[in-house]
Amino acid sequence: FCTPCLQECLKPKKPVCGVCRSTLSPGSRALDLEKQIETTETTCNGCNKKMYLSKMRSHAASCSKYQNYIMEGVKAVTKEPLHNTRNFPNRFTFPCPYCSEKNFDQEGLVEHCKALHSMDAKQVVCPICASMPWGDPNYRSANFMEHLQRRHRFSYDTFVVRDYDADEDDMMAQVLMRSLRDK
């Protein structure tokens, strides 16, 4: 995860899992796992020095042979430069259309706007809708707060497995097939 996304997930008000966005509950230390890490031996893949797993991270940071080993691995698996990767729209995090804050998940954007912008009447583009294939990135909502509360009370992905490249007929056929299987 990038730092801004991870920080958004770990906000003290409501920490959530970075993958599924479910609420994190306070945990307890895994003492058995800590003991296992303290007592399990491993070998550095760079210099072949033996050490406990608990010491490996600090060793790897200072071992030039280990860093060379990692770089060789990176070169071996890198096939294309990063600028050739296909550009997919981000449908997971959104900027606030009123202020400069970024990296809100859908629920976080709704909460943020309700808390800080509920009285703002400026017409803005919904960043959630604009990221969807059917969304118009130029459409300005006359009442963005009402739009958010009606249209984005829940995440599409929570209730719908969606193929954004499929047309309505394909999706209807898939739904009908699933309903027949579920009987």
From TrEMBL:
Pfam families: zf-Di19, zf_C2HC_14. PROSITE patterns: ZF_C2HC_RNF. The keyword Ligase applies. One of its GO terms (molecular function) is ligase activity. GO terms for biological process: protein polyubiquitination; ubiquitin-dependent protein catabolic process. Residues 44-63 form the C2HC RNF-type domain. Its EC number is 2.3.2.27. Pathway: Protein modification; protein ubiquitination. It comes from the Eukaryota. It catalyses: S-ubiquitinyl-[E2 ubiquitin-conjugating enzyme]-L-cysteine + [acceptor protein]-L-lysine = [E2 ubiquitin-conjugating enzyme]-L-cysteine + N(6)-ubiquitinyl-[acceptor protein]-L-lysine. It is an enzyme of class 2 (transferase). This is RING-type E3 ubiquitin transferase. The lineage of its organism: Eukaryota, Metazoa, Chordata, Craniata, Vertebrata.
